[in-house]
Write a structure and sequence with these properties.
Rossmann fold, binds adenosine monophosphate, 15 helices, alpha/beta, 7-stranded parallel β-sheet, about 475 residues, about 35% helix
């Protein structure tokens, strides 16, 4: 049955009231499919991207259970446990529980590293209905006897793919070993790569499976483009483009991703020097500083947030309309998560990726993951046809090195893609500055033309100086 209204789902009255207050009328696809299943008590393996409404898909059935139960949490006990990869996502999930559960009396706690343990221990002491935690700190507190997971009723692994990427597999297994066998388990992941399926087999019992988007696909409403340019041209391009966009669309929220902390910090500084309002979040900032910056961004106190991937998962700011991949990510999965920060809650958004010669292998990885070419934007004064040609060619290219300052380690790579000439059919226009923005390769339907005013002004030539940066 097609569910077009939350009222068609038998969620308790306090939840319906909170949803109405929040202005949610129609369940998203994942909610429509997952909530009724979860309310029956079964396990779930869900492949859903960020931005699909997956948090409410698991939070609402849990809150429904809480609202129907008279059981109280016991000392140091937890009734519903949600694991997330990052602190930002943990805070965001806990906030969502509070919003949706506004009229349900329940206790919620947050556990993550980088901050003092004491308040977390205090929270846990009385017992909690809902605990949202990052695996590392939770293990620390478990080992010290501050938390008892033996009576967990619901276990949610949120963004499980990311947790595996971040090396949490052992922690997850350890946590799972402390849970009762008789529980409901939900696993959410943006991709369904083999390690996730394996994890699902180990932890879920006869799960229902929901796939909202095929593996690795990017949100449909995101208008994507890749721009080929010299590494040294990126800063000029972004300064010019964001300055112009700020004139055209004041208060537009932009999120820029860099690969290194150093780049994030410096770029935000440069943007401010140009009269734009920017700030950065990265691993060198303390957790509380990051949270404060995010809150200021959410409140619209500045327009451009420059972030490293550390922060990518947790940013839930509704009105981000532009995501810029200033550097392409080392891991292709991160591309999907980065661009998923725009086009939230059914809105549309734009994602542009600046690709230099050194990053061609990374771009190929991304396109292989999303199974389609990203439309090319040549309508800017920094277009480098050689880089585009290299990308479309069959020439093997190395990945940039990963370690500090992009030197040493890593590398190798290249050649791990399926070769095959012009991989997507026609090779696209030969000339730069074509009147069409999105090239002529076969495209994915996201390539509707855009106002040419978004291209960089045809002024200065790209500076070719750029130094390797610290991570
Ligand atoms: P999520 O994928 O859980 O991060 O949710 C993405 C965004 O969609 C969040 O900003 C939610 O507040 C919003 N959202 C979730 N469900 C709905 C809904 N049914 N109607 C409108 N907005 C929603």
């Amino acid at each position: 049955m097609k569910i077009s209204n939350f009222e068609q789902i038998p969620l308790s009255e306090p939840l319906q009231k909170a949803l109405a207050e929040k202005g949610y009328t129609t369940p998203s696809l994942i909610q429509e499919r997952a909530i009724p299943l979860l309310m029956k008590g079964g396990d779930l393996l869900a492949c859903a991207q960020t931005g699909t409404g997956k948090t409410a898909a698991f939070a609402l059935p849990i809150l429904h259970k809480i609202s129907q139960s008279t059981r109280q949490p016991y000392r140091r006990g937890v009734r519903h446990l949600v694991l997330t990869p990052t602190r930002e996502l943990a805070s965001q999930v806990a906030d969502s529980f509070k919003v949706y559960g506004k009229y349900v009396p329940f206790t919620t706690g947050l556990v993550y590293g980088g901050v003092s343990e004491k308040p977390q221990i205090k929270q846990l002491f009385k017992g909690l209905e809902v605990l949202v935690a990052c695996p590392g700190r939770l293990i620390d507190l478990m080992d010290q006897g501050h938390v008892d997971l033996s009576q967990v009723e619901t276990f949610v692994l949120d963004e499980a793919d990311r947790m595996l990427d971040m090396g949490f597999i052992r922690d997850i297994r350890k946590i799972e070993s402390k849970l009762p066998r008789n529980r409901q388990t939900l696993l959410f992941s943006a991709t369904m790569a083999a390690p996730i399926t394996k994890l699902g087999q180990a932890m879920l019992t006869r799960p229902d499976e929901i796939r909202i988007a095929p593996q690795g696909t990017t949100a449909e409403k995101i208008n994507q483009a890749v721009l080929f340019m010299a590494k040294g041209a990126k800063q000029k391009y972004i300064l010019e483009t964001l300055t112009r966009r700020a004139d055209e669309q004041p208060r537009e929220l932009t999120l820029v991703f860099t690969r290194t902390k150093h780049n994030a910090k410096n770029l935000a500084k440069k943007l401010n020097q140009e009269g734009l309002s920017a700030d950065s979040i990265h691993g060198n900032k303390s957790q509380s500083a990051r949270e404060k910056t995010l809150e200021r961004y959410r409140q619209g106190e500045f327009d451009i947030l420059v972030a490293t991937d550390v922060a990518a998962r947790g940013i839930d700011v509704k009105d981000i309309t532009l995501v810029v991949n200033y550097d392409l990510p080392m891991e292709s999965d991160a591309y999907v998560h980065r661009i998923g920060r725009t086009a939230r809650a059914g809105k549309s958004g734009q994602a542009i990726s600046l690709c230099s010669e050194e990053e061609v292998a990374l771009l190929r990885d991304v396109e292989r993951l999303i199974k389609k070419p990203i439309p090319i934007d040549r309508d800017h004064s920094y277009h480098l046809q050689e880089v585009e040609n290299l990308h479309l060619s069959n020439v093997k290219v190395k990945k940039p090195a990963q370690g500090k300052g992009n030197r040493g380690g890593g590398g190798g790579g290249g050649g791990n893609r399926n070769g095959g000439g012009n991989r997507y059919g026609s090779s696209g226009g030969k000339n730069k500055n074509g009147s069409r923005r999105f090239g002529s390769r076969s495209n994915n339907g996201n390539s509707q033309s855009q106002s040419s005013s978004r291209g960089a002004p045809k002024t200065a030539q790209p500076s070719r100086t750029n130094r390797s940066r610290n991570r």
